[in-house]
């Protein structure tokens, strides 16, 4: 069974592919990813160009939608069938899941040559190193505490950009009073989860967030702040 590499993403975005031992025999890289919008495609072209300079052809395997959910469903099916892509975009914890399953290649030789131990932050190495071996490399890192605001609506209701959760609620109430749907979600669990993350961080602060979500502190989880 072929193993696949991972080149990587809080989300750490990762890329995954054929084992290092077989890399010299690979002339075409089959790349599974969900970067299908115009801006994302432009970013992906940078990777394509770098790969071309190394003498490899790039074969796109795009799977749009779901913030990567659809792509990961496709990857799961491919791995189950033994038809691995050469490389795949992944999110951080997904890399660890596949590493535990024993299907990731070993990037340690490349990592040592390029000094990843020093150049990749320790927080990202948690998603890139498994059982002492590099199985992933970051290509994109972003946080989840962001919000898209409709400027036309803001201008219409005379709103200002909120800096706290309370200010956000006040803005949403103002939009609702003006006959505007105040908040729109895509109907997917991860969107609600990331919004809840931001609410807890804004309401309780960094230390409370760490105790509740990192340490799973029972007192914090049952506190009035969490309620």
From TrEMBL:
Q: Does the keyword Transferase apply?
A: no
What main location does UniProt list?
A: periplasm
Q: Name one GO cellular component term.
A: periplasmic space
Tell whether Disulfide bond is among the UniProt keywords.
Answer: no
Which keywords does UniProt give here?
A: Periplasm, Signal, Sugar transport, Transport
Q: Which Pfam families does the record cross-reference, listed alphabetically?
A: SBP_bac_1
Lineage start: Bacteria, Pseudomonadati, Pseudomonadota, Alphaproteobacteria, Hyphomicrobiales
Q: What is this protein called?
A: Probable sugar-binding periplasmic protein
Instruction: Give a short account of what the protein does.
Output: Part of a binding-protein-dependent transport system for a sugar.
Gene3D superfamilies for the chain: Periplasmic binding protein-like II
Native source species: Rhizobium leguminosarum
Which protein family is named in the record?
Belongs to the bacterial solute-binding protein 1 family.
The secretion signal range is 1-23
Compartmental location: Periplasm
